[in-house]
Write a structure and sequence with these properties.
Distance between the termini: 40 Å
Bound molecules: fe (ii) ion
Number of helices: 13
CATH topology: Ribonucleotide Reductase, subunit A
Largest sheet: none
Number of domains: 1
Radius of gyration: 20 Å
CATH class: Mainly Alpha
CATH architecture: Orthogonal Bundle
Shape: globular
Structural class: mainly alpha
Strand content: under 5%
Helix content: 55-70%
Length: about 325
Amino acid sequence: MSLTEAPSTVAPETVDVSTDEGRDTVFRSVVARLSRQSVDKHFDAYTDVPWDDPEMQVRADDPRFRLIDVDPLAQTDWYRSLPDAEQARVGLMRIATGMRIGWEFENVLQRGLLLQAFWLTDCEPEFRYLHHEVIEESQHTMMFNEFISRSGMKVKGLPFPRKVASANVVRMARHFPGLFFLFVLGGEDPVDHVQRLHLQADDVHPLVRTIMRIHLTEEARHLSFARQYVKREVPRIPRWRRTVMALYAPVLFGLMTRMMVFPSRSLLKSVGAPVDQVRRAERSDESKQLLVDATAKTRKLVAEAGLMTPAATVLWRRMGIAPATGPVVD
Ligand SMILES: [Fe+2]
Ligand SMILES: [Fe+2]
């Protein structure tokens, strides 16, 4: 079979996934489908976003940039007391900062995917798909950066120590790929959840709506690939690696979900928001529920992959990314 030739599609329910061979068959079939979809429906950052249309223009006082209700920053007295135009400016800054952190995350991801592709042997089915994903993440990165530049906002991304630590994540793609794809899900799952909430809001600026729709469409494939990868990988790695993954997952998701759904310290500083009020809002029942909801799909995957061990379950609850009582998975 050539590198680009897709194996025939199989219905996963007809395959015995309790064996390595069965899981590999499902993986190959899903990857082939995702590769085909990447050709059938993909977007270009410059031709598929009508940046110069009058309705797409960005004005910092546009009320359609205001924060969505679930945002902890929106729940503070400080934000509620701001005039409308100032609320819009804070909201725009929040979106632009999210896009900056988003493209930095995607940059780490692209480097990891390329490293993984580099070390693949011939004919492995994921070679082609890894490149589809790198191309799409590059388009997202350019799309996010274009938005930031048109917003006129000066935004900061990840703190310096996290930027330095990102090299370790990239290396993980080669030496511990299962863990690398958990990292991928740790970023993509919460962002997916928050962008869906954003699109449900009443009046969203059309440029933000267009960017988020494009992003959600392509991210659905990335999430699907990462989940299939983890499901195939976990049963074939040594027990000690499975233990590491099971215990590492809740810590990783606890940190990454907060990074993706809560406002960063640099943003709070830039807009002059009182940190104590925001941190209090992050401990509200609404915010706790947001963390639990944003990780629902990941918990399901982790359980299906056999990584929701009793010790891991305790950690998922401790990290605040699973319901405090009752079942961990819906
Ligand atoms: Fe992306
Ligand atoms: Fe992605």
